[in-house]
Structures are given as C-alpha cells and as structure tokens.
Amino acid sequence: MDKLLKTSFLGKTYPSPLVLASGVLGLTADSMKRVLDAGAGAVTTKSFGLEPRKGHPCPAILPFDGGLINAVGLSNPGVDEMVKEIRKLREQAGSSSGIFASVFGRTHEEFGEVTRRAVEFEPNLIEVNVSCPNVSSEFGTPFGANEMDVEHITRIVKKAAGSIPVSIKLTIHCPSLIRMAKICEENGADAITAINTVGPGMLIDTGVMKPVLANTVGGVSGPAIFPLALKAVYEICGNTRLPVIGTGGVRTADEALQMIMAGARMVSIGSGVYYGDIELFTRINRDLRSWMKERDIKNLKEFRGVVHE
Amino acid sequence: MSDLMRTYPVLNVKSHSPVMKSFYFRQPVPDIQPGRFFNVWLPGVDEKPFSVSDVYQGIMEITVKAVGPFTRKMMDVRRGDLLGLRGPFGRGFSHHQHALLVGGGMGVVPLRYLARQLRQRGFHFEVLLGGRCGQDIPFQNDFSEWAPTTFVTDDGSLGYKGLVADYMQDKIRESRLSFVYSSGPEAMLVKVMDLAAQAGLDYEISFERYMKCGIGICGQCVVDGSGIRLCKEGPVLTRQEAEKVSEWGLPHRDATGRRNNS
After folding, report:
1. Per-residue DSSP letter, A65
2. pLDDT tens track, chain B, 262 positions
3. Residue of B nearest to A20 (CA)
4. How far apart (Å, rounded) are the C-alpha atoms in residues B4 and A202?
C-alpha cells in the first residue's frame, strides 16, 4: 500500500483517500471493480432501497456549462439485487477492498430495514442518503432538511447497522448545516458525507420552450458546487469531531487537497468522472503523491485540516 | 460541446414503411464516425439513443422503427419540428478492407452509413442482411448499389428463407473476406461472433443496452465480465473487447438496473 496516500478511516485502512461517490458507476460489480483498479480507495454503491425503482424518464442526466444536473430519481435494482452485485465485487476485489453501501428509504423505518439487509455483505460503511433532491414530488422535502428526521433516521440506521459504521450524507439545504452535523454526532453517527447535489435546479431549452430534464428539476453537481461543498466540509470539521467524506465538484488533485486541508478524511468523486473519466482516480493519486513529495510531506495527516489551525 | 442538449429542426422526414421513418437534420458536428449514436430527445416525452444511419453532404439521418411508446410517438414527428440531439457518443466502426457486413433488422442502420464510407474509400466489401420479412430491412437499394448484397428473411419474402447466420459461413468461404462487421439482434450477434471466431476472422460488432446518460457516468450500460461502458467504450466493440464480456445472450438490465427474468 502506498505510504503517502494510505488513509485510515473508521478503523480500516485504504490505499487512497479517494472514493467513488454514490450515483456514478455504482450499479454493478464489474463497473465498481474498474474504479477500484483505477486507484479509488473505496467505492460507494448507487443508493438502493427495498424495492426496484425505475426512476425518472430521460433526459435524466445533463451536462451544462458549470457542471451536471440530474434527476435520475433513485433508480436502483433493489436491495436483494444490489447485495448480489456487492458480494460479487467482494469476491473479485478481495476482502480488504473498500465498499461503501449507500441506502435510502421512503420512511424512517425503511432506512432501518434496508440497512439490516445491506449489512449482510459486510460493507465497510453504510452511507445514509437522506438528501436526494429530485424525488420531492414522491418523498416530500428531503429528510436531510429536517432535524427531527435526521435524528430519528440516524438512530434507526445505527441500531440496524450493528458493528458497521454509519455516515450520514447531508445536504446544504437545511437551516443550519453545523446544527445538523451535531445532531448526527449526538445520535451516534460515525461520520458525515458532505455534500449531496445542490438544488434542485433546472434548465430550459429555448427552442422548444420546455424544461429539458424529464423531471423538470434536478440536483446540481460538478465544478459549480465545489466552493459550496468545500465550505460545508470546513464548517463540519470545525464544529464536530466526526470524520468527514468531502464530496462535491472535485476534479483535480488541487481540489482534493483543498478538501483535505478543510479537514476531509476522504474525498469522494462523482461528476468528476464526466470531466476526467475513470482514469481521473489514477491521475489525482499521482498528482497528490508528487505534491507531497515536493514538500517532503510523509502522510496526509500532516496537512489534514490545516486551515483550522 | 456536443454533450450539451440542443434542439434542431427536422429538415425532412422519409417513410420506409408504415412503422419506419428517417429524420434528417443539419449535421451537428463534423466527422461523425459510423456506429456512434445520438441521444434523441422528443420534448415532453423521453430521450433515447439512436445510431446514425447516414451523414451525406452536411445532412445527418437518424432512422427509427416504431416498437415502443417513444418510437411510436416519433412517427408523429413532422418536418420543422424541433428535436433535441446530444452526441455523437461512444466509439464507432473503423475501416477494414474485404469485410462482410452482417445486419439484422434495425441493426442494418449503422451499417448503411459504414457502407457509404467504405465505398467512398474504394474498399471492397460484401453485405448480408436479414429480417423477419422484406419490409423489416431498410436501405436495400443503397446496399445493393454499393456492394454485392444478399438478403435473407424468416418468411422468405425477400431473398433466401432462413437466418443470416446460416449463410454467413458460405459467404466467408466463397468470397475470401477477412473481416466482419455486425449489428442486429443479440441472438444473431452471438452466432456471428462464433462463426467469425471459427473462421479466424477479426470483427467489430455494435451492441445495445439500456442507457441513461450517454456520457459514461450512470453505469447503466456496463456489461458484465469487463466493466466496459457501452455508451463510452462501445457501442462498437472489437473482437478482443467483446470476448471479455460474459453476459452476451443474457436478458438485458432494465431501467432499475436489474437483469430481466433473473
């Protein structure tokens, strides 16, 4: 394992601080294996629930000048099918490979139910998606916007997860992100993933004078949200003791460094795959290594959270 | 950037049969390789991938057969209507001498544009096309005009009666062809791969899977055994790539990501 990039997180050690974010290439074992092979320290599955969901019609994912906008609508094959894929990934990638399972539920109780089934394959982490912004017509306001919901879901998932650590994936669309992160901490969460896509936002085609996304609105990701994500990570790291997976718009080693300097333990990349393809993980690892070597920095701890000092 | 959604007016519509039409657009980007595809957005309905059936004198052609709700709605599209286009996506066919083009049903679509390019380069090639009936096979005149072409139909209404695979071996043996291109139903493609491999021939084959993004991130079109994303590294795969895939002939994953009937 690369000494420079070796990352310990919640009792496990990963070869790189880079993580594949949920929602990108996280549907099948072969797809996630490719990302691990490219150098990701861990991969996060696409969010899955109890039952298969088709999600929204297309267009569901669109690039625009500042990033991506998506309303995939939590399409997923359901927990039973995902458990099969993840087992397969474990077999292919080895028992030490980093696999984070992203779960969601329609109700508080469903979060617990999905988690109970997901722990069967012993993921390294349960990531709790309380913050998907593009299914509001069906689910109402994301749970992540409401302190009571986050408190309750954190407790339920923690209980269901047993010895598997739990990270709550937060949205910046809540009255106070710091308060929300503290609620997660007080209720037993082991980590925070920050942030989910921002919005929802929308795009209109001026030719046909209609919204382009089939769902009209969708979550915004990519470079447009990087400063928002960075500030969220900075705030959470400054106000809780929880380790943070920083995510939102990271495309370069410099942006990954910024996340770590703001305090992130791991850095998750989703839309970045659109800009730099799967090899982005290889390139960022390489660039992080040379940045550290140039400064004679021996490990990530030396500069993690440095801007708080 | 061609990944961004943009709407284009339909310059013309041509009917091939009551359920099959071609739509013509001003060519949105230069040098569109045959086998690559565009995501076509019918505003207010849905967006689906379609391979390019031709690019000629600055006009791009997309050919659609009515098989589901989206493609049936496409039959109502008129000249002047605005459709969204994103692309071209993926990797297409490369150019090889002495090739056999094997197409089935709507699979002949990308082969038609490939045939135009091979002919323009003065390459020798032959064509073997199949369908359930004669009406299933578009562009019969173009293929016949450009290369020695054999038709095979299930009901014998055009050319020989039978399946394309039944005639492929003879074609390879008789004509000293050295490369195979194929596109069509997967059951046919699996046989074409077998027969080409038996004859020791290289090939390039265009595959289809459910796709959402077209830009290599949603993971919906990744094929088992390889991690290949068909929207990015495909839809056309080389023999070396196709041989790594373990799911050919299995039911495709649906919009949820579940393999149907599994």
Report:
1. T
2. 489 999 999 999 999 999 999 999 999 999 899 999 999 999 999 999 999 999 999 999 999 999 999 999 999 999 999 999 999 999 999 999 999 999 999 999 999 999 999 999 999 999 999 999 999 999 999 999 999 999 999 999 999 999 998 899 888 888 889 999 999 999 999 999 999 999 999 999 999 999 999 999 999 999 999 999 999 999 999 999 999 999 999 999 999 999 875 5
3. B217
4. 14
* Residues of B whose CB is below 8 A from A207: 6-7, 82
- Is the distance from CB of A172 to CB of A206 less than 8 angstroms? no
- Chain A, 247 to 286: residues with Cβ < 8 Å from chain B are 270-271, 273-274, 277-278
Is residue A132 flagged as an active site residue?
A: yes
Taking Cα atoms as reference points, which of B112, B130, B12 lies closest to residue B53? B112
* From B47, B232, B256, residue closest to A58, measured CB to CB: B47
Substitution target in A22, A30, A50 with the highest count of B β-carbons within 10 Å is A30
Partner A contacted by B41 (CB < 8 A): yes
Q: ipTM above 0.85? A: yes
Question: Strand B125-131 and strand B160-161: pairing?
Answer: unpaired
Query: Across the interface, do A77 and B215 touch by the CB < 8 Å criterion?
Result: no
Q: Minimal CA–CA distance to B147: which of B164, B172, B122, B168? A: B122
Centre a 10 Å sphere on the Cβ of residue A217 and count the other Cβ atoms it contains. Answer: 18
Rounded to whole angstroms, the Cα distance separating A224 from A198 reads: 9
